[in-house]
Amino acid sequence: MRKRVIAAAVAAAAAGGIAVALVWSRRSARRWERAERIVQELREGCHTPVTRLWEVADAMASEMRAGLSSDGGSSLRMLVTPLESLPTGNEEGLFYGLEINQTTIRMLCVQLGGMDARVIKKHLAEVPVPSNLMVGTSEDLYDFIAAELSKFISAEELSYNIQDRRPKEIGVTFSFPVIQNLASNGTIIEWTNGFSIKETGEKDAAAEINKALEKHGVDMHVSFLVNDTVGAFGGARYCSSDTMAAVTLGMGTNAAYMEPLHAIPKWQGPHPMQGVMIINMEWGNFQSSHFPITEFDVQIDAESPKPGGKVFEKLISGMYLGDIVRRVLLKMAEETALFGDTVPLKLRIPFVLRTPDVASMHQDLSQDLSLVGEKLEECLGIPNTTVRMRQLVVEVCDIVAKRGARLAGAAIVGILKKLKRDGTDKKSVVMVEGALYEHYRLFRAYLHDGVKMMLHGRNLDNVIIEHSGDGCVIGAALLAASKSGHATNS
Ligand code: BGC
After folding, report:
1. What is the pLDDT of residues 257-312, one digit of tens each?
2. For residue 105, which of 79, 82, 78, 124 has the smallest C-alpha distance?
3. Distance 247 CA to ligand 1 centre (A)
4. Is the CB–ligand 1 distance for residue 320 below 6 Å?
5. Which of 195, 229, 281, 472 to mutate to test the pocket of ligand 1 (most atoms within 8 A of CB)?
6. What is the β-pairing status of strands 428-433 and 463-467?
């Protein structure tokens, strides 16, 4: 009797176990189904077929025209930079460049040897900007810059054995929009990219830096100040006179190019360079009804310090790609409990997942995606992930990066179209600088693929999009060199 009771109890327990296992596996299947549906919706929302890419390129070309006609007439600022000259390759002497970007200042000293010798020697130093200075006053920031430049120059003078006693000239680039009526002065109209400087009134940044240099006893003068992408354009022209545009794809994004004066009806100022002007497009502000926008982009925009601003930058730049991916994963965690019954706390922290981490996960070539597993744990506090979960995460990274890269490519085609270079027999070079393009191989590949598809059958070989290694800081020094007039007559 006792034996029969035990047997019955064991049978009941086994049946219960099976029932629990069945419920569990049904719940797990539902979770996966739901998670996969979220990815599918994301894929559809981010879809960028060639027809849509052309719509974006056409919109870019017409926004450019509108922005050149009047200020405020377009989502693109199309700021005119009245440079007096562009580097030709003939420049000779020792020149300095300074770049103020998202997190660091980069100082460059370059010795140029004219057309044959070109860059004889160069030295670059990078110093992080203390975080308190990024949100302090411009005076404190320029003081810091002057002090760092003073150290840099003393070290350089020793190493180059400098005999030249002429006052040193420096070209400065900022990763912010600058309004100027001369290349030697400029007012920063918006401190972006992590800076939030308290500025009283409109100040000429070049004059302010010169004041700080004098205060620190530095025998140096800011000969001009431009936006970083304009600086990159100057550097790119030194490398190839076929350069039509320079593009920055980093934390922030932008494009600059050369426009004939007659195509800029809004410009009333001086026109120092023969018949052409450099335009800082501020393309991060580009807006078009053709953008594939998802609920995640809407959230990012609504929670940003400037909703409605920098719409294009929020879709394509290094500042935002990581956070778009994080938001998709958060939705999965909340709605499918894919990463456990409680949502990992870190997953709720905005910008905790950075684009370089997305790039590492996306480009993980290991069989079991072990790097994805490590990154999920380290950056988002999601431990013990299975290979299937990691594959889903990689897919999210792929969709987000692919959309950004193809839109960036479409915008480049838009510029070429505006310049009537989207299929001619003339060679057109577009130089791209910035860590997103340089270090995110798959992003770069998607950008190139998109452009190739768009320009298929239209003299594609004449459109060359390539990486400009030295970026804007050498551009700053080269622009200073071209302005100084120290050139050989070759
Ligand atoms: C800024 C531009 C800058 C770009 C690249 C954007 O956020 O508005 O002025 O050129 O980032 O650094």
Report:
1. 999 999 999 998 887 777 899 999 999 999 999 999 999 999 999 999 999 999 99
2. 124
3. 10
4. no
5. 229
6. parallel
